């Protein structure tokens, strides 16, 4: 599914095309996404001027003077800029029409994504208010991570992906960061030393920054806003490489299931 780098790539891709423009019309072809699109959605958005496009965790926040459109890409969703006369396909569920050359189109084959219009303080919205810190922000520190992990008897990979401590570290990048930090994904979070936490915080920052720079990880269902796929998959060391040789030591990578997610690690390099 699209993770933080893919969402950040999408944000950067669509922002120059839609910021400062006024929504002329909205076409909803499918209301039943993760949550039902409200009946007044089209009327609520029409006439709103887009002031900025931001990201919080894996949510895109399209802000206007009056409110915020929260967009989640779900498992397979993507946003693209297309001309007004560009034919819609079976999975093009929502068009936000800005002018004849600019339509923000939401495509979602599996319909696990969402579009939610809300007024008021966006950070107090139920979808956002309990989220952890942004991994590339100054608030994500070794000391903070170490203190929050104390006495936690859950696997460190599960702890990372919960979103309560740090946001946006999904399955792909949790696998990669733990490999880079040489930490087994099955280790209990509370067993990590301060040095372990320092390495892991640093590796999370590096992995995510690299992925954003490369345009995100190419997944089967993901395309960036301009239709070009990301290229970070060429640098993946463990994710998707179960039973292949480790890129460091050549030992066979192990693949297990944790919380119903594929987890790949090197039993030799990661301790």
Describe the structure.
The protein has 271 residues and is α+β, with helices and mostly antiparallel strands. β2 and β3 form a beta hairpin. The strands form three sheets. The chain has a four-stranded antiparallel beta sheet. The protein has a four-stranded antiparallel beta sheet with strand order 2-3-4-8. The two termini are 28 Å apart. It folds into two domains: 121 residues, Alpha-Beta Barrel (N-terminal domain of MutM-like DNA repair proteins), CATH 3.20.190.10; 124 residues, Helicase, Ruva Protein, domain 3. Helix content is 24%, strand content 21%. The longest helix is centred in the last third of the chain and has 21 residues. α1 crosses α6, α3 packs across α6 and α5 packs across α6.
Please tell me the total number of domains: 2
Strand order of the largest sheet: 1-6-7-5
How many strands? 10
The geometry reads as elongated
Q: Uncertain segments of ≥5 residues (pLDDT<50)?
A: none
As a whole number of angstroms, the C-alpha radius of gyration is 20 Å
Strand content is 15-25%
What is the count of helical runs? 6
Written as H for each helix and E for each strand, in order along the chain, the element string is HEHEEEEEEEHHHHEE
Helix coverage percent of residues? 10-25%
């Amino acid at each position: 599914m699209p993770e933080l780098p893919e969402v950040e790539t999408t944000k950067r891709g669509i922002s120059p095309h839609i910021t400062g423009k006024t929504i002329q019309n909205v076409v909803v072809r499918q209301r039943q996404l993760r949550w039902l699109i409200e009946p007044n959605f089209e009327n609520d958005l029409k006439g709103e001027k887009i002031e900025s496009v931001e990201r919080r965790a894996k949510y895109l926040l399209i802000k206007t003077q009056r409110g915020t459109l929260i967009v989640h890409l779900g498992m397979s969703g993507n946003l693209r800029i297309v001309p007004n006369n560009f034919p819609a396909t079976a999975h093009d569920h929502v068009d936000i029409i800005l002018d004849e050359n600019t339509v923000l189109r939401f495509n979602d084959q599996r319909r696990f994504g969402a579009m939610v219009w809300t007024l008021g303080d966006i950070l107090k919205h139920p979808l956002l208010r309990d989220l952890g810190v942004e991994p590339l922000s100054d608030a994500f520190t070794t000391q903070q991570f170490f203190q929050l992990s104390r006495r936690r008897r859950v696997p460190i990979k599960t702890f990372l992906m919960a979103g309560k401590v740090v946001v946006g570290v999904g399955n792909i990048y949790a696998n990669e960061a733990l490999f880079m930090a040489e930490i087994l994904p099955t280790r209990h979070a509370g067993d990590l030393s301060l040095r372990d936490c320092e390495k892991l915080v640093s590796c999370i920052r590096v992995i995510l920054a690299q992925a954003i720079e490369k345009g995100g990880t190419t997944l089967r269902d993901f395309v960036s806003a301009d239709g070009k796929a990301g290229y970070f998959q060429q640098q993946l060391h463990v994710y998707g490489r179960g039973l292949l040789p480790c890129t460091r030591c050549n030992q066979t990578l192990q693949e297990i299931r944790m919380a119903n997610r594929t987890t790949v690690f090197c039993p030799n390099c990661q301790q």
